[in-house]
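Quick log. Single chain, no ligands specified.
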Amino acid sequence: MPKTMKILILGNYILDQQKSMQLFSALLEKELRKSGHDVRLIRPEPFFGKIGFFGKALSKWLGYLDKFFIFPFVLRRNLLWAEVVHICDHSNAFYTGYLKSKPHLVTCHDLLAIRSALGEFPENRTHFAGKIFQKLILSGLNNAKRVACVSETTKSDLLRISKLEPEKVSVIADALNYPYSVIEKEKVKEYLLRLKLNPDSQFILHVGGNQWYKNRAGVLEIFKALISFPEFSDTHLIFSGAAWTKQMRLLIKKYNLKEKVHEIIYPDSNTLCALYSGAKALVYPSLYEGFGWPIIEAQACGCPVFTTNRPPMTETGSDAAVYIEPRNPQECASVIRNSLNDENKISAMEKKGFINAQKFSTDKMLNAYLAVYKEVINAHTSSY
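-> predicted structure:
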């Protein structure tokens, strides 16, 4: 029987509301326990940050007290127990400063915030305080014993930006954090009724947050162009994820889409699975990504995927998606229309999608992480 390891997982601060990162750390904890390992999941807990009467802006700054002044005491105490430490999100890489004498690994999901702070995205300026914080994160990554990137694209960015040697960086693709699969039509209708949506309506789906690179305004532009075609005039659009921004609400009003566009704020995994299963397509025109979880989630549910023609979307979606140029809404709409009107093409996309999604299994991801844990432990032991 393989040796049991004592694995300390560092998760994300709850008040930061990084839903995907919370799912990722919870999945790791569950699967590592199932494999027979001793696991502790710790994260900075809200104390100062939950004092709500200071207002949202000040509470964010108070949250840094929780992260930088309280949590290090918790971390040090748990380090006495742990054999290896896994920082689940690179945005917490500054904690590597406490791990110099402990085998550890950081998962890097994307370098978008760091690249923005370095001025690589003129459309998204980073304030002075943000630049300092991202510099701190990059310094933490530079000090990491090992880093696992979720895509080849993210690895390429990391090696270009950081001082890490290539042998310290590997690629471990994300896995589906829920057993997404096709839900029968009648069951989908039940979920739609619970959401107070027309169970017989045809709809396009978008899944994601409000980060600037998600291009949610672009989704509205594409949808507006799509429903100009007669056969799609009765189609609806569902946004699953973060609540609409003020900009999005203004666009919905401007384009007179109030009756056709719906927001489902962070549905549970069962509901999201039903939305994928019932959607005509997932439209996911992100400008940039680190991996693109919704792509494989949709494919696992038999939902055709239309996403951006650049990596890592092309890496994640493989040959099972249709790729579009997100800055050209009219062209995107035409590609979506022509594809959805081609039954043979959609059938082929669904079949290829199932095959592609199976590549991102939990077992595959878990075994890859376990191999890296053993490597960093052995490297640490041999250095003494």
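The domain at 185-358 is CATH 3.40.50.2000 (Rossmann fold).
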